[in-house]
Amino acid sequence: MENWLGKSLKQKLSLLIIISVLVPVLSLGLFSYYIAESLTEEKAKSSGMNTLRQIGAYLENMVSDVENLSLFLIGHPDVQSYLKTTEHDLLKQTSIVNLLTTLSISKPYIANVMIESNEDNKPSVSFRSVLESEWADIQSEYPSYYEKYPKWWSPVHHFVTSDGKEDVITMSRPIRSTSKYYDIGMLKISLTQSVISSHLKQAGLEGEGVALLLDEQNRILAGPEGYSTNKNLNDYFPGIVEFKGKSGSFDYREAEERSTVLYYQMPNVNWRLVGIIPAKAYRAQNQYFLTLTAIAVSISMLFVIAFVLVLIQKVTKPLSALTNFLRNSSPDEPLPTLPVTSIDEVGQLIISYNRMSSRIINLTDEVKLSEALKKEADMSALQAQINPHFLYNTLSSVHWMALMKGDEKIADMVGSLSDFLRFSLNKGQEYCAISQEILHVDHYVKIQSIRYPDKFDYEANIPAELLDMRMLKLLLQPLIENAMIHGILKREGKGSIIVKAVSAGERITFIVQDDGVGMSRERLELLREKISANLGIDPLKNNDSAGSSYGLSNVHNRLQLHYGHEAGLRIESVEGSGTKVSFTIIPIQSEIK
User: Fold this and answer.
1) 85 three-state secondary structure
2) How much of the chain is helix, strand and coil, in % rounded to 5?
């Protein structure tokens, strides 16, 4: 892949643009699919919850109808009269049977209505004769419910009538005397469980979803085939969490076995409708959208690739022509001029190339002229070396004459001056050993100590391991000169000048510090600004020594030129306390040829 990318700009641009476009397209496709999947699930939940509410509304109407019927029968005069009399009145019993039949025959969900007297010698009255019933077992199994709640809905049980065996859910409530408010009987209204189950089977939840009716203890009252009544929901869905609130939803299990559980609490009875939708129902619905998304993304990818290749070909064709011109051109001949076919960025590049070829010809002529002038300057410099040699010979003669006459101070001063000048010229070399730079400073200090006896002390602290390293020459002497002339000589009494070097890793920091008169804050800021602006004027000299070969600006400029902008001078000064000037360089380990 790396070799293929390195072949041409066309291949690089094609691959990079295709990737930069395809990644968002693929990401958008995946994002759309996940959004659709989430919307499908939310839609299924919303639809399922609406279905449960519709079934709940139907069951609530059924329960409300039973409630109203029970209230009507409890207060009916014939029922009250029949239960209050101690004698068995067959005529009243027949009248009540006709009443129950009239009220119940038009309601297919009512399996039976029964009125029982508290007196053992008085038979029960119902519009259907019950031959066998589990009610006694239900009553003995849940005595606390039967005794605690005046109105109570039983779990599913069955009774046998002349029409056969039938599963029912019974609501029982006591009948009290309307005059003296004591119990005189019991009313039982039974609902046909199969009618409720048929509505749950027609719920139409997504996929293979099922709808169940549970009582307050999560026992199944009604549901589709395969779910036995009176069994706990946990028997079919182990570990299912408790229902919180009146309605809501949660996930049961994870991954491939995940199902969505919806629940709705009926307000007037302790029944709960529960819908369970397998997650695979969502995936089946999303398969079509996934296929459609894949097709759309594939078509978009093909279109993008074709469009990018055509676009890249159009853009890189002029560049390829320019490359061929440059590859086939001879370095000894002028560069050819290319035709400009457009005014876009590529056209501007070709125009710049044509201008550059013309400029190269002019620069070649200038270089040739510059080389000729340089040779001439070298000849002039060679001739000028006669004067330094004459100066060295003259100073040497003066030195020996002073020694012959016994004037050692003059001899030392002339000898130091000779060495000082010889190092300054140094045959045109720019770098020297640190030891040579320190020796040059020593010569200068020796000359000044003869001129200004007992005016200053000088100390140089240079680690021995740094002496053989090489640095740009004539950096320390101008700093010593400024410290002496503008710091020490202007103060009263004797001063001191200290030169030291500190190494840190590859870098060496040189510090020249004096205890002279120093500078005010305003003058220090002015000095820093002028040095940073490279004005070439040393404010410490007040322009009275502008002819000096080396000033602070000169040193600062040379440091930045040879060592970079970070190597410039750093100046600190306190008026009346002295001045400290420092700079940091990376020395040369070996001698420069």
Assistant:
1) coil
2) 55, 20, 25
**What is the torsion angle, in degrees rounded to the nearest 10, for the CA atoms of residue 9, residue 11, residue 17 and residue 22?**
-170
Please tell me the distance from the alpha carbon of residue 575 to that of residue 524, in angstroms, as a whole number.
10
3-class SS at 134? coil
pLDDT tens digits, one per residue of 546-562? 333 347 888 888 888 88
The answer, yes or no, to whether residue 146 has pLDDT greater than 70, is: no
Of 471, 477, 478, which Cα lies nearest the Cα of 590? Answer: 471
Instruction: Record the pTM.
Output: 0.48
The answer to whether the beta carbons of residues 158 and 168 sit under 8 Å apart is yes
Nearest to 492 by CA among 394, 588, 576: 576
Q: Are 18 and 305 in contact (CB under 8 A)?
A: yes
Q: Are 55 and 273 spatial neighbours (Cβ–Cβ below 8 Å)?
A: yes
Q: How confident is the model at residue 373 (pLDDT cuts 50, 70, 90)?
A: low
User: Exposed/middle/buried for 143, CB within 10 Å: 0-12, 13-18, 19+?
Assistant: exposed
Instruction: Take residue 513 and report the two structure tokens written for it.
Output: 């510090």
The terminus-to-terminus CA distance of the chain in angstroms comes to: 45
- From the list 193, 228, 213, 175, the residue with the least C-alpha distance to 111 is 193
Residue 416, φ and ψ in degrees, nearest 5: -65, -40
Q: Are strands 507-514 and 495-504 parallel, antiparallel or unpaired?
A: antiparallel
